[in-house]
Design brief:
The structure is a homodimer of 173-residue chains. Chain A is mainly alpha-helical and 173 residues long. In chain A, 58% of the residues lie in helices and 5% in strands.
Amino acid sequence: MQFEVSRAIEVLSATPSTLRALLGNLSGDWTSSDKEEDRWESFDVVGHLIHGEETDWIPRARIILDQGENRTFVPFDRFAQFEKSKGKSLAELLDEFERLRWDNIDELHSWDLTDAQLDLEGMHPELGQVTLRQLLATWVVHDLNHVRQIATSMAKKYDGEVGVWREYLSILK
Amino acid sequence: MQFEVSRAIEVLSATPSTLRALLGNLSGDWTSSDKEEDRWESFDVVGHLIHGEETDWIPRARIILDQGENRTFVPFDRFAQFEKSKGKSLAELLDEFERLRWDNIDELHSWDLTDAQLDLEGMHPELGQVTLRQLLATWVVHDLNHVRQIATSMAKKYDGEVGVWREYLSILK
């Protein structure tokens, strides 16, 4: 499937309501943990997505579109949410993410990007040369990656409860 | 996290609206394919979940609760949806799944299961002895497994569009 802005926006628009449907009515046991574990809980993932809306996708797209002298992106802090989300509820994070995402989709929409603009390049601080098209496609896949991560982190909570069915459940492997 | 019926119902109740939020407004390119591939598309997954509501979880729970002479479950057809969903739209499948799921949650709720009932056993045709508790926990994990599968099948459509970012996106591996 070839990248198209309108198709990308379909998925980007669906993510806030998907997370709200999946997580909005769950007990805290499903979405966070008191244990110090490396595994990100749903609460952490939503905070990470918020930080992406604020510092990653649209800010980087602006750098590419501006085509200024320095087109190197500011490095993204993958762990910012552990500080930034402190003291907030998951409901607050879901609201914040939805608001930021809609603002960003509005901005993306307003650009009415041409193919020539989608081919413009910027510089990723670790990966090197990238195009605007790749940045926007990655935004979409990144959303889906984290929907997947949330489903996985929830499933693993029942790791010890499914008995011999474990063998059939690839999500637990 | 220990299995509890009320916690399980939280996730089981969230799945129809999660699938509707994720898939309900997407173009067909995201949810189905003309190609003959082994990979299940979102359309196939929703059909599979419908077949589970009709023939797997609650029917098997009834076999266990009845404690009749033959407690061996009818084998589940993992490919039934390829015939059963033919000619239907994804919107129809999402409606059907939601209706069946709510009926099944109502039935589960009405049983008001005790710990002793959750320990009752049935016989899986391939895996052997299982408890009602394990069956219900597996129902939950199975939902999450397929949410994960849908996110993955959508992400893979942009496999060729993300450029060097591929390295960071575990969902594409």
